Amino acid sequence: MPSATSHPDKLDRTVIVTGLVVVAGMIMVVLDTTIVNVALDSLSTDLGAPLSTTQWVVTGYLLAVALVIPLTGWAMDRFGPRTTWITSVSLFVAGSALCAAAWSVESLVAFRILQGLGGGMLLPAGQAIITKAAGPRRLGRAMSILGIPMLLGPVLGPVVGGLLVEYANWQWIFIVNVPVGILAIGLAFWKLPDGGARADAGRLDVRGLVLLSAGLAALLYGLSRADSQGGFGAWDVLGWLLGGGTALTLYAWHSLRQGTASIIDVRLFTDRRFAAGTVAVFLVAGAMFGGMLLLALYYQTVRDEGPLTAGLLLAPQGVGAVVAMVVGGRLSDRFGAGYVVLAGIALALLGTLPFTGIGVDTSYAWLSVALFVRGVGLGAVMMPAIAAAYTRLGEDVVTRAAPTLSAMQQLGASLGSAVLVAALTQRFGALLAAQGTQGPDGGAEGFSTLPPAAMAAAGPLMADAFGVAFWITFACTAVIVVPALFLPRHGASVRSATSG
């Protein structure tokens, strides 16, 4: 690659093409997750199943993702990143086609699990492929390419889902994945470098896989239960969380004994930058995805907007994230992720602050400006933090580090959503109880059960509850300052010279 040799700090054509191939596969996965959430009511009606059963269309996918994430690193070492990537996309496409042909809610859940087995490997595999292609000097800009689906998917998903559900039928939310996936597979065969399989990958750490996958699945299921119930007090929530925490503790003990033979070596966390980047990703995922859930709920409950309109009103955050991706990666490579992330935190706090005083008639224009600033800030935190986590890792451990970051991002998003919905529900319930009125049952879904007359009367109280929940989002965002202090504050070229 002559361009890479003569201009080692610039993104050459190979890295850009590799990034775009990875994005082609990831965009359908990230979009699909939010599109399905919008379509749950339609699925419940058309398949003749209660919403509590239809919810397993989401839960089953989430658990499949948790089960397969730890396997990704070993699979890339054993079979090579390109083979793992193509297999993952193929599983997702096959699952999508079968979902579109589902004849009952049970068959749909089964096919969604197949989708999850493919989708769960795509994010860590994509990160590993980009990291190896770019190298440490250009990692910030390369990760910005990867940030396109990660940051835009939650914004565009509700819009696309709303359009498909309103003007087509629910089968199309899965059919649209098939041509995109076939294109991604073709591009991967054409452009992704072959090889990378290691003869010394070793045998699969079955005991570690069982402990780690079971622990992640139990934690994510417990958090999804807390989200739907609006709290952590029930035993069917605490039991799963405690079980998951116990399994992960046992895995940490197992990994310390096995070392590099374990499926993910926990000693990676002895690298300060990897640990700091991972914690920052965990926290920003909670603030980003939890905040997105709050915003969607606010627009649909307090302001009585439909899913499509709510999705459009969330678009300024995606636009802001794009701005951050354009400039954030370059600044991160030149000056260090530490400075960029700190600036991003400040902007994210500035953009979140107006929502702490949100009302029933707050100007949409004002909220859109705040969302744009919030998007710039969160975009300037997420991708530089991920890039910084890899900067001092050798190529031989990148494939095992990527699943760790993906798992922490998934856990952070689920925990943030559960905590914020619990805060929202409990605050709203307390305000209603003070007026002698019973609050809604359950978590986020419970708000839709309130009759229109009650909603009109309870609007100011609900807006107050959203304000409290956004104060928690503000605090979670502020805490990211702590790991940000340990991220690098000098450019990649300086790091290379120093380490050399």
From TrEMBL:
Transmembrane regions: 15-36, 56-76, 83-103, 109-130, 142-164, 170-192, 204-223, 235-253, 274-298, 310-327, 339-358, 364-390, 411-434, 468-487
Keyword set, alphabetical order: Cell membrane, Membrane, Transmembrane, Transmembrane helix, Transport
Domain Major facilitator superfamily (MFS) profile, first and last residues per copy: 18-492
Topology relative to the membrane: Multi-pass membrane protein
Compartment(s): Cell membrane
InterPro entries: EmrB-like (IPR004638), MFS (IPR011701), MFS_dom (IPR020846), MFS_trans_sf (IPR036259)
Protein's name according to its UniProt entry: Multidrug efflux MFS transporter
Organism whose genome encodes this protein: Myceligenerans salitolerans
